[in-house]
# Entry
Amino acid sequence: MATEHVDVLIVGAGLSGIGAAAHLRRDRPGTSLAILEARTALGGTWDLFRYPGVRSDSDMFTLGYWFRPWTAAKAVADGPSIRDYVADTARQYGIDSAIRFQHRALRAQWSSQQARWTVTAQRTDTGETVDFTCSFLWACSGYYRYDEGYSPVFAGAEDFGGPIVHPQHWPAGLDYAGRRVVVIGSGATAVTLVPAMAATAAHVTMLQRSPSYVTAIPSRDPIADLLRRRLPQRAAYPLVRWKNVLLTSAMYQLSRRRPEFMKSLLRKAAIKQLPAGFDVDTHFAPAYDPWDQRLCLVPDGDLFKAITAGRASIVTGQIERLTAAGIQLTSGEQLPADIVVTATGLNLLAIGGMTLAVDGRDIRLPETIAYKGMMLSGVPNFALTVGYTNASWTLKADLVARYVCRLLAFLDAQGYQTVTPVAPDLGDRERLAPLIDLKSGYVLRSIGLLPRQGPQAPWRLYQNYLRDVRLMRRGRLDDGVVFGHAGAGRPAGPSRPHDTAPVGAAPVGPGGGVVGAGGGAAD
Ligand SMILES: Cc1cc2nc3c(=O)[nH]c(=O)nc-3n(C[C@H](O)[C@H](O)[C@H](O)COP(=O)(O)OP(=O)(O)OC[C@H]3O[C@@H](n4cnc5c(N)ncnc54)[C@H](O)[C@@H]3O)c2cc1C
# Structure
């Protein structure tokens, strides 16, 4: 079979991949594209997770795409509604037919001679491998492994009499009505599951080793409701989006600058919603500062309500072992359980597990430095979408998509075929901060596998939408990159593997190619 060639090959048909393709359709209608998707359905996270109550914890006015208003009543949406929103977007922009389902991208090899990538995918139905070629490769593959959630090994697991379920692999039809459930974990998934299961379970215990910050948000946004009644969707949506951006970034900044003040606010808010005498300092007061790890948001305080109603409780302690009847803690306490849910997290995975090679040289991700949080030093014509960890993922995904469209237009306008980030010399790369700089367990477990970030822009990721809007939508396109043509050989650089320039040096284009002409020309 002839190898299919497209201008842009996207890996992943989740929120980011469909958004990326929609941006290309909107801004660059002549650009050919295809999407490789390992699964049989689109939607990524919002199709994979099927546990009770699965929902967003950010508001949909910022988790939705900037170009497609979120019109449903609830600001915090359930998983199926988000999946439908992604699927409707794909339909609206005619992207469905561009998706190659059951194609897992395994390896991508760049040829400077041809200025193109060859991407080898494996069909998940037949096992056969298929090659695609593209001029620009865009990883929209999320940030975690799909085949396996993170599950620590618990002593005695084989003795436990009931099912042990991981939320990433929820068995269809699991009947928990009238059963005693223990949910192990304290993150976003645990705080979602506990009130949802408590509606019909006999009792749900959230068993956590250490607490998280948990705070209530309204599931409906009264200001959004008001604006949507008075204004057309097209006008109301950006207003609400900006209101939420400003509100969440103010909360984040306050948390970072005045952590003690924020801790006391969160504590007081929790006390208000919990029964008198509840031990807030044991169960809701982490040792870390707010936003060292993601804050857990609970719509309309549903977790607090389930605890107040006596349908759910929280135990903070260490597991000694599982027993036939439940869980034994190191404190000696026994937690009776019919079902154990291990909401213990994800296994991080960068660029969907794909390996990259540039002109025959394998790229090790921890030796690369992320450029503007969306390209990698030394890797030509490649982008990756990684959303914010302190705000809605899509805010960043949209910025990356608009930037890629600007960059492609710039290449066309200037007659270039390649663009490669060239990092300054930052010393030992593995000592630099990782691209995802959270202290959450799932990040710390996989830190050695991630691309790095440098000390300042364009190599530093600020997790700051307002700053990124300036950098990505209006900022220069030519800082820290070299442009070139096919056949020019790979970008020149000093001792470090072909992606480093001395600090302050003007990058030199391959084969003497001109560098740095007219940033922002395509905006
Ligand atoms: C339970 C849960 C709740 C969340 N809630 C929020 C929230 O409220 N707000 C927020 O901002 N973020 C949230 N997130 C983060 C969430 O993942 C993002 O919001 C967003 O869905 C990511 O979209 P994505 O398309 O980048 O990645 P994904 O949704 O992970 O989709 C990636 C797609 O790429 C495919 N893929 C991966 N590797 C390959 C490969 N090698 N070849 C082919 N296909 C591949 C996958 O099959 C998948 O379809 C949540 C995450 C989880 C797990």
Q: What stands out?
A: The chain has a mean pLDDT of 90. Residues 11-17, 36-39, 44-45, 49, 56-58, 63, 104-105, 140-142, 146, 189, 352-354, 385, 387, 392-393 surround flavin-adenine dinucleotide (CB under 6 Å). Residues 147 and 357 are 24 Å apart (CA to CA). DSSP finds 13 helices and 27 strands in the chain.
